[in-house]
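User: quick one, sequence for these tokens?
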């Protein structure tokens, strides 16, 4: 495997009230599949380079956003659960959320509207150009991403994220459980790095 291949991250996750360890284990297997498929795509690009018929490479390149984003978004998703729930510390993110949503509860209420329907990702992005936080919906992993905008946090609302524990009609209970388990220190640190970038 080439040196620049991706390796699945190993997450140290606490017990999460409302999301079972079986659910998390199944979800992590899916995440590792995205890492594997991303590497497999690059191996295929290498293998097919110089192929006089470009159609296969063209189609595979169109697949890259799905597999790569599937990998990277899950790394935000699981990474924000490490260390257990922690409150949002003082700092730039807290001030920005206060300005735009009142507080993290205001953000949660706004997100709940976004996640109520569909299968995909609810994503908070930061636009350094105008210092605005966007709440965005991404179908699958790649359709609807905001170009160039760094991601502050990503909530997985695919059915696979909750269907070991909940029916589709109960998915807001899953959202509440994920929200309650977030480590806001991690999220604030990431947001701060985007602001300084
Ligand atoms: Fe997922």
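Assistant:
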């Amino acid at each position: 495997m080439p040196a620049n291949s991706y390796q699945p991250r190993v997450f140290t996750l606490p017990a999460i009230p409302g999301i079972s360890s079986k659910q998390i284990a199944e979800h992590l297997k899916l995440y590792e599949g995205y890492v594997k498929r991303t590497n497999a795509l690059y191996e295929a690009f290498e293998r097919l380079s110089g192929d006089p018929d470009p159609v296969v490479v063209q189609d595979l390149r169109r697949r890259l956003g799905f597999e790569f984003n599937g990998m990277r978004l899950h790394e935000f998703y699981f990474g924000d659960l490490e260390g257990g729930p922690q409150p949002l510390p003082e700092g730039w993110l807290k001030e920005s959320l206060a300005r735009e949503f009142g507080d993290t509860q205001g953000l949660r209420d706004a997100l709940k509207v976004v996640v109520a329907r569909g299968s995909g990702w609810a994503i908070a992005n930061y636009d350094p150009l105008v210092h605005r936080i966007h709440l965005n919906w991404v179908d699958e992993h790649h359709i609807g991403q905001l170009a160039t905008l760094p991601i502050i946090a990503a909530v997985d609302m695919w059915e696979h994220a909750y269907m070991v524990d909940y029916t589709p009609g109960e998915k807001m209970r899953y959202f509440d459980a994920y929200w309650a388990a977030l480590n806001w220190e991690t999220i604030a640190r990431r947001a701060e790095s985007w602001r300084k970038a």
